[in-house]
């Protein structure tokens, strides 16, 4: 069987036994192969003579599996402690590891040096969910008896007949996860309630056949229960929640997402009786209204409350928000997505949470305006995640306020159709004073965004790992979508056509591609300008005024940046040498193969002017020919640095031949 790294535990143990037959002081200790014996402590000066509990604690600090395996080869005393540590949580990460694991635990105990199955305390079969079946469960039931945490999520071939023997053989279970096991029925829950009185966590997500009766029995039998998830258990009603409130006073987490038969009365009772409750999820329950929160006692205070999810409870109003904030002043995560009656007044109540609020989801709360966001930013300065998807009244002003949040890491602005490049530049500029860099940005269906604005954003945040731009026309191009992750298979044809989400290395490659194409565009523009200037007659350089000399210096600085080395400033050179210097610069920088023009179907007319640097630092160049400016698309790439040239806009679509000189 594989240990943590896939090494056969039995072979290593046998090798350790052979190693212990040497003249080591520990070789004189008499032991039995299947249990820890009392050690004869003749001299504790040698590490091998330490009690097993101390050795196990010491070995637990070894992070490398190879180090633990090496410890097994020292002597029998070390081997027994190290093998238990290796088998404490088997790493079943592949089919091969599953096969070897199955072979080992299927072997009778008499044929093994160690009872490996008895060392397993945590078992997670999620990675081999397609291979696990009822037969494998029976094998585990015979081999394992000390499991404390069991995860069987997504093992679709496992039913009651497989789970019941395993949980019955492991009465020390503290946590069981049978989420998305669609074949699980009330029989499994009853078996766990009977066999595992010390159960603390139970995840029944997606077990649609589970009913009220067994949840009541579970609550009455497992009074140490601390976490229970009944996500999408549509048959669960108030009886189940009342039983949990009456029998499990230490419950910290209750998930009733999609349990549409839960009513206001049961919610109120749970909040008042479960004093340790930290996380309460009631999402997608249209029956929940203001009455669930308006009738708390005046002296009620839920200081342990940290997470409250009310997604889709669209009967809630600002009055509920006011009561929730008053009675749970230490809320850290508040989810009010699709609570469509929430207004700016509700946001003002949220601001009373102050620095404790880290996560806020207000998606589809379309009544919220820039004023509410401005108040929120002033009151809750430690927000790390905020989602304002489909808040269609928000404008650039709201994003500019959000950009001042020093700890902001994730922001969602999906379908905020009024957002333009100005808002994106505000986010890009915040990095100077931000304690944390943006990691995830959602801008899907913000159709007014351009390539250069997004480039400024991804250049400002090198740690950005997720960028969603689905439905943004500027990015629906083959040369960019090649870096996207695949669209989910359940999407229809249109959704797949506009899908544009960059994750992980996709963001890195997008950044490289945009920077490369932008640099090539700038090279061509500068080359054309230098070419025009070298064509001037020799005597024309005698009439350069101060502004012209500044312009020449700008060209040279830009050239210096592209070359990556100190260069010769044209303004310091003798005038009769200027043409020769220009020719040398052109030969050094631009004498290389030009990129091929884009295909005709990707080409577009030259775009508006874009200032490639901060306009406050830019030296105005009156001698460069510019195309007409479209005020709706003019933007600044806020990148601090030296002054540089003003160039025609690059939208990534203009073929090289269309650049204006």
What this model shows, in words?
The termini are far apart. It is globular and about 90 Å long. Among the domains are: 1-120, no CATH class; 514-658, no CATH class. 37% of the residues lie in helices and 8% in strands. The strands form 2 sheets. A 15-stranded mixed beta sheet has the order 1-2-3-4-5-6-7-8-9-10-11-12-13-14-15. Strands 17-16-18 form a 3-stranded mixed beta sheet. With 661 residues, the protein is an alpha/beta fold. Mean pLDDT is 78; it is low at 1-44, 538-548, 561-575, 588-599 and 601-661.
Short note summarizing the structure:
The protein is α/β, with parallel strands linked by helices and 661 residues long. It is built from 24 helices and 18 strands.
For the biggest sheet, the summary is: 15 strands, mixed
Number of DSSP E strands = 18
Helix and strand content put the structural class at alpha/beta
Count helical runs: 24
Poorly predicted ranges: 1-44, 538-548, 561-575, 588-599, 601-661
Radius of gyration: 33 Å
Calculate the terminal CA-CA distance, rounded to whole Å.
71 Å
What is the global morphology? Answer: globular
Output the strand order for the largest sheet. 1-2-3-4-5-6-7-8-9-10-11-12-13-14-15
Oligomeric status of the shown chains? single chain
What is the helical fraction, as a range of percent?
A: 25-40%
Q: Which range does the strand content fall in?
A: 5-15%
Mean pLDDT across every amino acid position: 78
């Amino acid at each position: 069987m594989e240990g943590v790294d896939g090494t056969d535990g039995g072979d290593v143990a046998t090798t350790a036994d052979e190693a212990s037959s040497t003249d080591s002081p520990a070789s004189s200790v008499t032991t039995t192969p299947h249990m820890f014996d009392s050690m004869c402590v003749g001299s504790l000066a040698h590490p091998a003579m330490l009690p097993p509990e101390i050795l196990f604690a010491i070995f637990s600090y070894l992070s490398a599996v190879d180090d633990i395996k090496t410890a097994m080869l020292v002597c029998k005393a070390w081997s027994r402690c190290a093998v238990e540590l290796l088998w404490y949580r088997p790493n079943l990460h592949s089919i091969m590891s599953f096969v070897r694991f199955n072979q080992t635990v299927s072997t009778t105990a008499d044929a093994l040096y160690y009872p490996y199955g008895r060392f397993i305390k945590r078992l997670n079969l999620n990675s081999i969910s397609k291979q696990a079946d009822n037969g494998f469960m029976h094998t585990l039931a015979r081999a394992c008896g000390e499991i404390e945490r069991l995860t069987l999520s997504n093992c679709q071939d496992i039913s009651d007949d497989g789970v019941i023997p395993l949980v019955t053989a492991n009465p020390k279970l503290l946590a069981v996860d049978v989420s998305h096991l669609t074949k699980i029925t009330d029989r499994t829950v009853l078996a766990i309630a009977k066999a595992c009185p010390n159960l603390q966590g139970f995840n029944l997500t997606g077990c649609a056949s589970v009913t009220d009766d067994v949840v009541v029995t579970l609550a009455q039998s497992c009074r140490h229960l601390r976490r229970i998830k009944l996500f999408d258990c549509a048959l669960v009603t108030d009886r189940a929640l009342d039983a949990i409130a009456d029998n499990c006073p230490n419950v910290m987490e209750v998930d009733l997402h999609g349990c549409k038969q839960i009513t206001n009365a049961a919610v109120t009772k749970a909040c008042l009786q479960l004093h340790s409750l930290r996380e309460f999820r009631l999402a997608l329950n249209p029956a929940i209204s203001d009455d669930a929160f308006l009738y708390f006692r005046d002296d009620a205070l839920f200081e342990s409350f940290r997470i409250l999810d009310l997604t889709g409870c669209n009967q809630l109003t600002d009055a509920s928000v006011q009561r929730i904030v008053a009675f749970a002043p230490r809320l850290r995560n508040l989810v009010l997505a699709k609570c469509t009656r929430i207004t700016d007044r509700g946001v003002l109540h949220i601001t009373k949470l102050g620095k404790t609020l880290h996560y806020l989801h207000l998606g589809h709360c379309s009544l919220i305006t820039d004023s509410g966001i401005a108040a929120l930013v002033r009151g809750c300065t430690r927000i790390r995640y905020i989602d304002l998807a489909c808040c269609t009244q928000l404008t650039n002003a709201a994003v500019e306020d959000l950009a001042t949040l020093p700890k902001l890491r994730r922001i969602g602005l999906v379908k905020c159709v009024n957002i333009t490049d100005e808002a994106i530049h505000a986010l890009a500029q915040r990095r100077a004073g931000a304690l944390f860099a943006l990691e995830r940005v959602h801008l899907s269906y913000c159709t007014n965004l351009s390539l250069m604005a997004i480039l400024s954003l991804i250049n400002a945040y090198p740690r950005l790992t997720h960028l969603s731009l689905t439905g943004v026309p500027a990015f629906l191009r083959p040369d960019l979508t090649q870096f996207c992750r695949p669209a989910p298979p359940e999407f229809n044809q249109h959704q797949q056509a506009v899908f544009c989400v960059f994750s992980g290395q996709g963001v890195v490659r997008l950044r490289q591609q945009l920077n490369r194409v932008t640099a090539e565009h700038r090279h061509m523009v500068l080359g054309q300008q230098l070419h025009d200037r070298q064509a001037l007659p020799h005597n024309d350089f005698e009439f350069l005024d101060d502004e012209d000399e500044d312009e020449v210096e700008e060209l040279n600085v830009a050239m210096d940046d592209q070359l990556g080395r100190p260069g010769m400033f044209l303004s310091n050179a003798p005038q009769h040498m200027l043409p020769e210097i220009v020719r040398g610069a052109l030969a050094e920088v631009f004498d290389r193969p030009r990129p091929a023009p884009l295909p005709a179907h990707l080409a577009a007319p030259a775009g508006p002017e874009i200032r490639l640097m901060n306009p406050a630092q830019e030296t105005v160049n009156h001698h460069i020919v510019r195309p007409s400016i479209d005020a709706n698309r003019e933007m600044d790439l806020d990148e601090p640095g030296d002054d540089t040239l003003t160039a025609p806009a690059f939208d990534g679509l203009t073929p090289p031949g269309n650049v204006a000189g």
